Amino acid sequence: MIAFDNVAYSYGGGELLSDVSLRLTPGSFHFLTGPSGAGKSTFLKLCYAELLPTAGRVTIFDREVRGLDRDEVARMRRRMGVVHQDCQFLDHLPIAANVTLPLAVSGRDTSAQDLADLLAWVGLGQLADALPPSLSGGERQRAAVARAIIMSPDVVLADEPTGNLDWDMSLRLLRLLVELNRMGKTILVATHDLNLIRNAKQQVAARVLRISNRRVQLAGADL
Amino acid sequence: MRITDLLAELRQPDRQADRVVPPSGHTAWLTSFVAGTMAFLAVFALALSLAAGRLADRWSEALERTATIRISAPEEQMETQTRAVLAVLETTPGIGSARALTDAEQQALLAPWFGADLPLDTLPIPRLVELHEEGEGYDAEGLRQRLAAEAPGAVLDDHLRWRQPLAVAASRLRLLGGASILLILASMAAMITLAANASLAANAQVIRVLRLVGARDIYIARAFVRRFTLRALTGAGVGALAGMAAVTLLPSAEAAGGFLTGLGFQGAGWFVPLLLPPIAGTVAFFATRAAALRKLKELT
C-alpha cells in the first residue's frame, strides 16, 4: 500500500529522516510516535506525496511518487483520507461543504442523509452550516475526521487527530478508525497519546512505529 | 480547450467549484472595469473602422466609373476640339455616355474657390467633358492617343491619381481601426492575466487545501476561469452598451461635415459592437485559463 525504501528527507540543510524502510500493508493499523519535532508530520506528508523524499523511494499504491504528475497525485489522494494537525479548511465555506469537498472535487454526488449521519456521528449535526473559524479546536478536528473518511478511502492518515478532543471523543474516533480497519482500510495515526495507543491495542492488532534519531523503528512492548 | 468547452462551462456551471474560491474584492472590480473600459474604446475603434470602410466604398463608387477630359485650346478652337472629343468618345468602345459641362455647371464647380460671380467668358477656363464607362470600360491609353491626334488640347483624367491615395487612406484607416481593436483585446488579456495571477496568489491556501483533498489542476483552474470569464462578459457588455450610447451622441453623417460626421454605425452595423462582449469573454477565458494552469504549475 505504502512503502518506504531507504528514504531520507532533508530540509534547510538538516536531515529530518534518514534511511527509512518500511511497508504499510493493506489492512494494517499503525501508530507513529516520537517526540515533538521528530518528524512525524514530515513522515505523514511523505505518505501522501505532499513532500518528496530527498533520497530513496516512496511507493504509494504501487506507484513511485517521484514519477507521478500532479493529476496522478490528485487521483491518488482521493484514495486517502488525511486528518491534518491544523485541519486545513476553506474558511469561507460551511462545515458541510468542507466535509464534502473530497466528493465535490472528484465529481461525486453527496447524499444529504449520509452527510447528516456522518456529521451527527462526529457530534457536528447542529453545526453543518457553521463556518470553520466559528468552531472550537475539538469541533474543527472532528470535522477534519469526517472529511477524511467521507470518501471511504483505502488509507487513513491522521496527524494528532485527538490533540484537541476530550477522552470520550478520542475513544469514539478510535472506535471509528478500528471499524474502518476491520473493513480492510489501512490506518496510520501519528500521536503522542500513549493511552490512546494502549486502548487501541486492546481492540486491534496495531503496530507502533517510533521516530528516534531520524530513523523510524518498530517500537517494542514497552508502551 | 475548445470554444464548445467554454460554452458548456458557462452553460452548466459547477456551483460547488464556483464556491471553492472565496468572493474576492479588488480583482473582481478590476476585471469588470478593464473589460468595460476596453469594450467602450473598442466600440469607437469599430466605428472608425466601419466608417472608413463606408468612405472608401463611397469614394470608389463616385470616382471609379467616371473620367473627365479637360480641353485647353484657344477660344476660337474650343468648340471644334470639343466636338472632336465628343465624336471620338462616341466611337470608343466601353464609354456609355459623354457630355460637355455647361458654363453654369463649370461655374458651380469653381464657385467654392472663386465665388459665384466669376466671369467665365473673360477667363481662359478649360472646357470639361464628363464621361461614364459601361461594360468592361475603355482602353485609357488608346483613348489618349486618339485624343492627341484628333484634339491636341484634350487631356484625359481617369481619376486614378485621386482615387488611389483616397482608397489607400481609407483602407489604412480601416486597418488602423482593426489594429486598435486587436491592441485593445491584447491589453485586456494582459490586464485579466495580471488580475487572475493576483487572485491565484491570494488564494494559495485555498489551492493547497483543494489539492490535499484530491482536486486536479483543471478543477481548480475552472473555478477561477469561470469567475473571470463572467466578470469580463458582464463588464464588456456594460462597456459596449455605453460605447454605443456614446456613438449615438456623435453628429449624424452630413456631406458638409466630411468624414468626422460619418463616424458611427449604420443599419446592420449597429449589431457589430454586440460581438464585443462574447469576444471579451473568450479572451478572458483563455487568458485566465493559461494564467491559472501556469500558476498552479508554479505552486507545486
Automatic annotation (TrEMBL), chain A:
Domain of life of the native organism: Bacteria
Entry keyword set: ATP-binding, Cell cycle, Cell division, Nucleotide-binding
GO BP terms, alphabetized: cell division
Keyword Nucleus attributed: no
SMART domains: AAA
One Pfam family per UniProt: ABC_tran
Keyword Cell division among record annotations: yes
ABC transporter domain sequence ranges: 2-223
InterPro entries xrefs: AAA+_ATPase, ABC_transporter-like_ATP-bd, ABC_transporter-like_CS, ABC_transpr_LolD-like, P-loop_NTPase
Cellular component, GO annotation: plasma membrane
GO molecular function: ATP binding; ATP hydrolysis activity; transmembrane transporter activity
Name listed for the protein in its UniProt record: Cell division transport system ATP-binding protein
UniProtKB/TrEMBL annotation, chain B:
GO biological process: cell division
This protein's GO CC annotations: cell division site; membrane
Keywords from the UniProt entry: Cell cycle, Cell division, Membrane, Transmembrane, Transmembrane helix
Transmembrane stretches, start-end: 28-51, 173-194, 232-250, 270-292
Superkingdom, taxonomy of origin: Bacteria
UniProt-recorded name of the protein: Cell division transport system permease protein
